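Task card 7
Instruction: Convert sequence to structure tokens.
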Amino acid sequence: MSSLPTSSRLMSLRERTEIPVVGDDGSHIDPSNSCSPRRSLSNSSRGYERASRGLTRVASASSALSLVSNPNLSLLDSELQVVEDCKEFPVVVVVVGASGDLARKKTLPALFSLFYHNLLPLSFAVVGYARSKLSVEEFRSSVSSNLVCRVGDRECCEAKTRAFLERCFYFSGQYGSLEDWLNFDRWLSEDIEPRMNQSDIATRGARRAPGRLFYLAIPPSVFAETLRSISRGAMAPEELGAWTRVIVEKPFGRDSESYMALRDLVAECFPEEALYRIDHYVGKPLVANLTTLRLGNFVFDALWNRHCIESVQVVFKEDFGVEGRAGYFDAYGIIRDILQNHLLQVLSIIAMDPPASPHAADINEAKLRLLYDIKPLHAKDFIIGQYDRYRSERGVPKDSCTATFAACVVQIDNERWRGVPFVMLAGKALDERKVYVKVAFHETPNHTFIPEELRDKRNTFYIEIQPRPAVELSFITKTPDLEGRVVQTKLDLVYNESFSAEAQDMPDAYERLISDAIVGDRTLFISDAQISRAWELFDPALKELERDPPVQPVIYPYGSKGPILPETLIKKYMAGRMQD
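Output:
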């Protein structure tokens, strides 16, 4: 088992020295006027009180750390209140790769939804940057074709759409061209940002330089050159107290070596605190709520260990194939695409020890410690498969051995979880579309009140992440009629039913994460240390599976349950432990 990272790697951001910002006239800028203002939070049940929260700030422009994040935001803070506190601080969201599918289908619609629900700053602009030669009118038309209002938002949809499109602009340039980014910066500073200062925000107080949030919706092959050019030619003016932040999408490399190379190049351009690595699964409502659900309820927290829990499943199932993503998918496969990031992040939230506080730094520290307790994975830990039509998909080589299905048993070597199998399973072209976590408790030692046919049943805690966010607890009981049969039933909390009003306005994962980046909340974003450790865990298995010749996947029928069920994998693991 690898040793834990050094204490400096795990240092909480709140332990950094706080240095006041100095304005361009040499005067001190009060942190209370920052985009992430001082606020108080009390938690009477724990006697926990935090007041006078200030941002970590650095005066020196060379440090590149002006307002890049706010470590004092908490998981318990009201997101609406945080957004409201930042309303008067202007921002330019630059969508790099704005003509691509990700930007058109996810990023730009998420920004529109935030605008529709008054969750963006009063003064903002959305600027598309891409290589395609488009006029502003053509860009706005492209954006408009993908904007959809929720069912409850239809009344003002047309007016809101027009207002949003008026804030959208476009600039054509090469991603790695410093000259193009310098021209972009000049255009932004001399044309777009002055318009923002003439808007309604100007009446609210002194002129402020807008922060700049760059959303990289581009292939990872151009990350480094793009970030290098942005850092040299398009940063927000720190001397005016403006911040620059960057959202980066996965994949973060193909293995440890490629990730480290990418990380080193990125680190030359931006500090870690300015990078917001997005994993949209962490932003899904139920995943974002897992920490509170688990740690805020004694009934779960007290049972969350190997003495009470027999196994845990983290499962991702899709009922369709690669659907136009064959080029990307065949180069990465299901392990890199789903297990190494989405499912590992969910597992780390489920299994981590309680964080020291609800702040981002402490939550990320707890997740990282858990990742270092996981034993590295090898080929023998995996069952891999490929659906029978995969090699007929356009763009897939006829002899491809890329896995479209993978399942493995993760072993956590710590006092809480030693001996408990954690199964991660992901597959395409299966029998249903569903993502869930299933926690199975140990068999009850007292069989007196359980008929023999139910003795193999377990109490289970089931969390459905999609498509129907829900939480279910199964248990044994008797029917209320005179027959009095002993049956297994469940208590459930279905989000769309229990929170019917709130569910009408449930935010998309991208909406939540973009909003968090604007206010500087890194709680739901992935740290460098977590990604580095994730690759360390999967590298041995990937190298063994992809050796020459590669391990052949099990072929399974399109629409089936796949080569193996998670329950079967658990039984095989348990049988192997008994033989050992």
